[in-house]
Design brief:
Layout lengths: L6 H19 L10 H6 L3 H18 L43 H12 L13 E10 L5 E8 L5 H11 L13 E10 L1
Antiparallel strand pairs: 1-2, 1-3
Length: 193
């Protein structure tokens, strides 16, 4: 029995189409005698090899070959925490001012989480489920990295699915903020297949 490697064929066709559309959308001149296959042959081999591995990772993960969907996201890098000044707390002054750490704005937190959680769609659907509603409590460190995730409501999801979603959420990449003990956020995740 002969085993065929179809991944290169898929990548080639996707890349051909991508480059052809890119060239035409940027108003580069593509001679009318070229069709999309001919155009591919004009590309340098070096340029093709450069993005081939990225395309392969994307295509294989999108058809279910990724071991962990979190691996499709880069690991967030810690940032320098923003120092909280705390205001002027001189008790001798009648005009003492008190301030509280602000943390990250609500819309910014949910924007990052909503973008990140899309990769949880690659987590394998548990058998017998058509929808899941889960709730997580996250602690976002002042360095922009999630320090802790607690599952508040598992919605009946199996541990393997919860672990997959949690590992994706840990890849959320936030900016630094000024709450030294971390910012607590409650985040619902609702999935339907």
């Amino acid at each position: 029995m002969t085993r065929h490697n179809y991944s290169n064929v898929i990548i080639s066709k996707v890349y051909i189409l991508f480059e052809f559309l890119h060239a035409t959308s940027c108003k580069k001149t593509v001679d009318a005698k070229y069709n999309w296959l001919d155009y591919f042959e004009t590309l340098s081999t070096f340029h093709f090899i450069g993005i081939r591995n990225h395309m392969l990772a994307f295509i294989l993960s999108s058809v279910g070959f990724a071991e962990d969907p979190a691996d499709m996201l880069p690991k967030p890098r810690p940032k320098t925490c923003i120092e909280f000044s705390g205001g002027d707390q001189n008790s001798d002054s009648e005009e003492a001012t008190y301030a509280m750490a602000e943390g990250l704005p609500f819309n910014q937190v949910f924007s990052v989480l909503n973008e990140t959680v899309q990769y949880a769609l690659y987590c394998e659907q548990p058998d017998g489920y058509s929808a899941l509603n889960m709730t997580f409590d996250l602690t976002i460190g002042c360095n922009g990295i999630i320090k802790d995730i607690e599952i508040v409501d598992h919605g009946g999801a199996p541990d393997s699915y919860l672990n997959c979603v949690t590992s994706v959420l840990y890849r959320a990449n936030f900016p630094a903020h000024d709450m030294p003990d971390g910012q607590m956020v409650t985040y619902p995740v609702n999935v339907a297949w």
